[in-house]
Amino acid sequence: MLPADTALSSAVFATLQDTFPRYFGLPVPPSLNLKDPEGKVLLGIQHRKETKDYTVAEAWISGKLPGLHEYKLTLTFYDENHRLLGTSHVRQKLLGPKEEAGPDGGGPNKLIDIVGRGSWSNYKEVTVQVDQVTGIKAQ
User: Fold this and answer.
1) Are 111 and 62 in contact (CB under 8 A)?
2) Long-range contact list for 42-48, CB < 8 A, 24+ apart?
3) pTM for this structure?
4) Cα separation, 29 vs 71, whole angstroms
5) What is the pLDDT of residues 49-67, one digit of tens each?
6) Interior/surface letters 44-54, b for 16+ CB within 10 angstroms, e for the rest
7) pLDDT given at position 22
8) What's the CA gap between 32 and 62, in Å, rounded?
C-alpha cells in the first residue's frame, strides 16, 4: 500500500515480465498422428520431459464419438526394438463432433498433460488403447 500523498510515478513493484527463459509458450498447432484401433480417439504428443521415474508430456487429444464422453485410455510406449519403455493412463472428458466423424475428423482439439511411469521420452512407437468410454448427458 502506498500512502495517500505519494505520487504513483515513484511506485516500484516486482514482476516476472522480463524474466528469461519464459516457462510457458504458445501451443504448437495440433498434430493428431496417433489413434486407437477402433477409431474412437485421436492423439498427438508434443513436448516431453523426463524426471526420475516418470515422463511428463503435453499432448493434443480429440474425441471421435458424437457427443460428450469421458475417455479412459492407456498409452504404451516402445523403443525401436519393441521393448516396453513405459505406460501412461489418461482420463479425459471430450466433446466429439455433432455427427459421426470421418477417418481424420473429431471433436474440438484439447491440449492436455500426460504423466506416465518409465523413461519414454525417446519412444519410437506408441499404442493407444481405449479402456472405457462413458457417455455424459448434457445438463
Assistant:
1) no
2) 42/104, 42/106, 43/73, 43/75, 43/128, 45/114, 45/126, 48/120, 48/121
3) 0.74
4) 22
5) 888 788 999 999 999 999 9
6) bbeebeeeeee
7) 46
8) 8
Q: Please, what is the Cα angle at 40 between 38 and 41, to 5 degrees?
A: 120
Please report, in angstroms and rounded to a whole number, the separation of the first and last CA atoms in the chain: 45
Strand ranges inside the chain, DSSP E: 34-35, 41-50, 54-63, 68-78, 84-95, 110-118, 125-135
Per the structure block, which three cell numbers stand in for 23?
516457462
The C-alpha cell 509458450 sits at 25
Average pLDDT of the residues in 9-20: 48
Per-residue pLDDT band at 129 (split at 50, 70, 90): very high
Asked if residue 87 lies in contact with residue 73, where contact means CB atoms within 8 angstroms, the answer is no
Q: Is 128 helix (H, G, I), strand (E, B) or coil?
A: strand
d(CA 5, CA 137): 58
Q: Is residue 130 scored above 90 in pLDDT?
A: yes
From residue 52, how far is each of 45, 112, 117, 120, 121 by CA, in Å? 20, 21, 10, 12, 12
All three cell numbers of 124, joined, read 519410437
